[in-house]
Design a protein that fits this description.
single chain; alpha/beta; Rossmann fold; six-stranded parallel beta sheet; 21% strand
Amino acid sequence: MTGGRADGPVRVVLVGAGGMGKAWLSTILASPSTELAGVVDLDLEVAEKAAASAGVPDVPLGRDAVELARATGAEAVVNVTVPRAHHPVTTAALFAGLPVLGEKPVADTVARGLSLVAASEVSGELFVTSQSRRWNPHVHALREQARALGRLGVLTTEFFKAPHFGGFREDMDHPLLLDMAIHPFDTARFVLDAEPVSVYCEEFNPPWSWYRGDAGAAAVFEMTGGVRYAYTGSWCSPGRETSWNGAWRLSGERGSALWDGDTEPVLETEPPVDPPAVPAVGEGIAGALEAFTAALRGGPVPTGEVHENVLSLVMVEAAVESSTSGARVLVDDVLDRAYARALEQEEREDVRARLASWTSVRGALTPRP
């Protein structure tokens, strides 16, 4: 799914010109590895304003990613649409021969995420979800420190913020779990190098909350190997707020590692050891973009490739199910139900056939080389 394309900057079409779209637009323009071929938005006025504010008023615009890519000779798509549009936009691009780098989550449901796994396999095109914390050097340092702690017991995240977003977040169901928690959930998988087995979760909404849905949550995941991951968070907790990355503690048999979310994590072991070396990585969405374009030029498959990424969304969906039911939820049960829905909902015969060929859903999510 990678390699075989010409050298030089990758010509990309950006789809979605809203708030995050503008951030991606600036990143694409600043990267020596990309060349902006065009900007797509259902509202052309939004696309026009975004392009003008970025200093590229004459860049081609359009309402359809595939059409604009073909008209401009673009090689890839950066999908920054709203979650419900991730599946149709990405599917169309993949089957038009265009690899895709998309914003999190991979799709708005696990079922449609599984459809995109199969679509990537059938089309043979690369699809990567950008989880920006995977490109945080401090996260990589914490992952390396985990290796120095021996057997691991528990990883915790505390997340307390009080943003007044306005708009859809304040009116959505499960705002914290669905819109934000995927970042620490994905980070936990990466740091622990472990996958979710089960979860018990409770959601709550303090009486002063300005969110319609529950803005607070507490969840405990069992991960493979027996380690626990505990998350506590709130989006309506003013005063002494944590970093947007949260505050982390990892406990193992040889000691502990702490990360405040903003500065270098601190390792304390008995006996003391030197902090492990950390590989050089890009940072934020710029790091994701660089890894994606490098893969298209023959480099390794990036972290966040669709097969590897779906389980982060599964953690979110399982936590919501546990909160709704009041019971511990097995992740494989969530996967099996999502798989049945994916088969039922799939409109492309070739994608449905690929889905049906899987003998194990979890096995099908094994990262591809």
